[in-house]
């Protein structure tokens, strides 16, 4: 065998490269270029991953979705402390629209938040979607998604039971291993059979050639998946006949084989030390050259090997200890350096955490204090620091409807690197399932994988990413002329008004194409922003648009999610308790509304106060009206001759301003300028549109001392219409101006749960909450331990407790506990 191999082992963050070659590489050969471009691509476009834990899988309107996001870097699964912003959308399946958009502040790779479900939301199926700004550079297939169901207390939920008519044709897909069949070479074909609802179907069948010969039989192994072997013959076409439980048989064509090419087969089951790769080809003797095989996992090279095309059958063994835990990709390039085969394998290293949850006792009384001890150890049994989120729910109301549902472990190691929906992902990580690794290997043969395209990787240069890693909120947009042509460099002024009346004023410029971006913003809730654009000295005939006020579009071509289906009366107790809780909340709100008798209050009228001012009475005030603004070129020009003692002279576009008496031996001392209480440059005031100004205060002498030495020349304080709390932005159509409301970071709310060891009046209310406790930020100490306490409700029920978390080094874990309330 004539093979040359390069292996990569990653230890402690460093890449050690033992080179095992039958003969040396030339400096310009394909394996060298392949390794170089592969590294360059993943350096330019590193991956991020996001996972979100919620307190439960379904809700009624009026409840709150409590959630905690985890951010990881793609290659190592380290806690991602670079991205500081996490976006979460609630999508309605039926309308394919984003109905709720949240922006969460991420710190050290973690982000807590919630979504209060308003009464206007329709009952039905929803999807929770989460992503970072950087992830928007890639396919939405790798955004985190989680199906949720929202119910109404007055609407009966969807009932179980299939209304599917008999003899409905199932969906069947065939996947030749490695990507293709070749005449005369034995290959394997994986298949997946699904029902119209997208669930795997257990089936059996046989394969028949066009000559009428039965060449293979097959049956599904797990969730509608399986495989069979076939050696296609020249001139023959093959059909699979799939038999359903009702006895009906449905024909499906199998992809035709190619007359010549390569077949790639992988054995990831039978050898405990190595993954075996079989490469066969039927290329004619006239074809010379070398094929190349690259093995990589999450953007990190594991091994590159080459072999001679003249060898029609080659076996390559890849040591398992080279693989990190999770999915790896094996790609075969032919003698022309084109990718012709690809196969996924899953490497199990058991580097996961053990999360042990221990209640202080197995049985509690209603409203009794529950103490939960948490202990986390790594795969070697050593205690580790871990960040966890924990949900405790009433099992009588929150049913575990989905068998082997997704969790942090299954998502990080499996689902996050695959396209499409994986049914029962937790099955593949339960050691009690003895066939799980074999079934997982079949899953690797049937599930789509396209995180990148090799044609893109092998380019000499890469386009810069459109979305950068976000250290804070981003404001991006574009300025154009009314005819939509590029204006060139435009001067920009940004004025942000928060709900607490604080303001920020920023100035800058667009690029030559009118594009602009402001990075690293940090504000909570919603903030109103006014953007003004000026071209040259005073040209405001421009249009401004923002790019990031909306979340990514929903591009599902087929909706793979289905609302959770319930048996009749399964949720009777849950819906009853939810309705009672909502009725009590409404009554409390009504009780707070007190009707007063009509009274007359007599008081001397006070001058209205402006929260933007830090001073009392101004020396002079000029209220602007249309007679003043008509024809005025600048705000400062309006002052000329209208306020005693204020002299505006020189070039109207760059005037000199002096308040009488403000001079020394060095010459004129110009006043301090402010806009809505924020000190700015004179140019910023000149850049304001005269139509945006409400009034101007002038402070002279002692009145200006509150601003200190910088106001030795007095103060000219400009107040805009937009700065007032009652300004109607819908009526603002000033040219070169855009007013918008920006969504900020969501304020983190604390999960409320009553503490029954502290008597309070509200404790007389009945307590049947479905979620007893939600703790999104639990941190174990150096001994791997932490403790959580909460109280049981009035329900005599079983309580399920689930904790998910990960170490900063990327090891995930999930723990569960059950306790009784009697």
TrEMBL record:
Q: For this UniProt entry, what's an example GO CC term?
A: cell outer membrane
**Gene Ontology terms describing biological process:** siderophore transmembrane transport
Please state every residue range assigned to the domain named TonB-dependent receptor plug.
Answer: 619-715
Q: Which family does it belong to?
A: Belongs to the TonB-dependent receptor family.
The source's superkingdom equals Bacteria
Compartment(s) where it occurs, according to its Swiss-Prot or TrEMBL record: Cell outer membrane
The UniProt entry lists the main location of this chain as: membrane
Question: What keywords is this UniProt entry annotated with?
Answer: Cell outer membrane, Membrane, Receptor, Signal, Transmembrane, Transmembrane beta strand, Transport
InterPro entries (alphabetical): Plug_dom, Plug_dom_sf, TonB-dep_rcpt-like
Entry keyword annotation includes Cell division? no
A GO molecular-function annotation: siderophore uptake transmembrane transporter activity
Q: Which organism is it from?
A: Larkinella rosea
User: Protein name, please?
Assistant: TonB-dependent receptor
* Annotated membrane topology: Multi-pass membrane protein
Q: Which SUPFAM superfamilies match?
A: Porins
């Amino acid at each position: 065998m004539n093979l040359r191999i390069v292996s990569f082992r990653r230890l402690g963050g460093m890449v050690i490269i033992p080179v095992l070659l039958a003969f040396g590489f030339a400096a310009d050969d394909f394996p060298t270029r392949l390794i170089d471009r592969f590294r360059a691509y993943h350096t330019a476009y590193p991956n991020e991953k996001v996972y979100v834990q919620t307190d439960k899988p379904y809700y009624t309107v009026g409840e709150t979705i409590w959630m905690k996001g985890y951010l990881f870097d793609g290659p190592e699964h380290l806690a991602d402390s670079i991205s500081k912003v996490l976006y979460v959308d609630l999508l309605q399946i039926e309308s394919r629209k984003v109905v709720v958009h949240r922006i969460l502040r991420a710190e050290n790779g973690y982000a807590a938040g919630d979504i209060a479900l308003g009464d206007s939301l329709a009952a039905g199926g929803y999807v929770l979607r989460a992503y970072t700004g950087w992830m928007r550079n890639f396919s939405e297939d790798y955004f985190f998604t989680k199906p949720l169901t929202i119910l109404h207390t007055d609407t009966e939920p969807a009932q179980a039971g299939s209304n599917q008519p008999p003899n409905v044709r199932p969906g069947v897909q065939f996947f030749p291993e490695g990507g293709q069949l070749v005449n005369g070479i034995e290959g394997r074909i994986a298949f997946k059979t699904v029902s119209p609802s997208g669930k795997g179907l257990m089936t059996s069948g046989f394969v028949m050639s066009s000559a009428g010969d039965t060449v293979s039989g097959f049956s599904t192994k797990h969730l509608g998946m399986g495989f069979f072997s076939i050696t296609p013959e020249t001139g023959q076409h093959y059909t699979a006949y799939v038999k359903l439980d009702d006895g009906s048989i449905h024909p499906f064509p199998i992809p035709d084989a190619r007359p010549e090419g390569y077949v790639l087969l992988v054995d990831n089951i039978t050898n405990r030390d190595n993954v075996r790769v079989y490469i066969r080809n039927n290329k004619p003797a006239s074809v010379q050259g070398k094929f190349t095989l690259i093995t990589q996992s999450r953007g990190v090279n594991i091994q590159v090997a080459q072999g001679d095309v003249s060898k029609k059958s080659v076996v390559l063994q890849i040591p398992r200890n080279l693989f990190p835990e999770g999915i790896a990709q094996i790609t075969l390039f032919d003698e022309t350096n084109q990718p012709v085969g690809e196969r996924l394998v899953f490497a199990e290293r058991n580097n996961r955490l053990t999360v042990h949850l221990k209640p202080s006792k197995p049985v509690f009384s209603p409203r009794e204090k529950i103490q939960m001890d948490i202990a986390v150890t790594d795969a070697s049994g050593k205690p580790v620091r871990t960040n966890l989120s924990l949900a405790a729910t009433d099992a009588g109301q929150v049913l575990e409807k989905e068998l082997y549902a997704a969790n942090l472990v299954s998502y990080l190691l499996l689902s996050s690197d695959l396209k499409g929906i994986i049914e029962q992902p937790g099955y593949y990580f339960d050691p009690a399932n003895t066939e799980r690794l074999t079934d997982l290997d079949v899953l690797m043969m049937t599930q789509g994988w396209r995180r990148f395209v090799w044609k893109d990787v092998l380019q000499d240069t890469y386009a810069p990413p459109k979305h950068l890693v976000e250290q804070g909120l981003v404001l991006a947009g574009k300025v154009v002329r009314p005819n939509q042509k590029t204006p060139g460099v435009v001067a920009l002024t940004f004025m942000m008004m928060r709900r607490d009346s604080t303001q920020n004023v920023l100035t800058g410029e667009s690029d030559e194409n009118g594009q602009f971006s402001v990075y690293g913003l940090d504000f909570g809730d919603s903030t109103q922003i006014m953007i003004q654009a000026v071209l040259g000295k005073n040209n405001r005939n421009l249009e401004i648009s923002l790019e990031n006020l909306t979340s990514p579009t929903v591009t599902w071509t087929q909706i793979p999610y289905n609302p959770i289906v319930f048996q009749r009366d399964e949720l009777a107790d849950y819906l009853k308790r939810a309705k009672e809780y909502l009725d009590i909340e409404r009554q409390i709100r009504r009780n707070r509304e007190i009707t007063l008798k009509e009274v007359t209050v007599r008081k001397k009228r006070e001058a209205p106060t402006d929260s933007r001012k830090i001073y009392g009475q101004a020396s002079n005030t000029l209220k602007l009206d249309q007679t003043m603004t008509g024809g005025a070129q600048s705000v400062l020009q309006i002052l000329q001759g209208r306020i005693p003692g204020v002299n505006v002279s020189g070039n109207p576009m760059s005037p000199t301003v002096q308040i009488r008496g403000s001079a020394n031996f060095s010459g004129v001392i110009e006043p301090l300028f402010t806009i809505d209480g924020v000190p700015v440059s004179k140019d910023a005031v000149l850049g304001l549109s005269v139509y945006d100004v409400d009034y101007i205060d002038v402070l002279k002498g002692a009145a200006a001392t509150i601003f200190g030495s910088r106001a030795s020349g007095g103060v000219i304080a400009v107040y805009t219409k937009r700065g007032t709390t009652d300004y109607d932005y819908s009526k603002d159509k000033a040219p070169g101006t855009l007013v918008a409301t920006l969504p900020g970071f969501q304020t983190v709310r604390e999960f409320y749960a009553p503490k029954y060891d502290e008597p309070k009046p509200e404790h007389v209310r009945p307590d049947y909450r479905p979620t007893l406790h939600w703790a999104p930020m639990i941190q174990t100490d150096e001994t791997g331990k932490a403790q959580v306490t909460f109280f049981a409700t009035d329900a005599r029920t079983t309580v399920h407790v689930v904790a998910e978390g990960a170490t900063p080094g990327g090891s995930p874990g999930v723990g569960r506990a059950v306790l009784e309330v009697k």
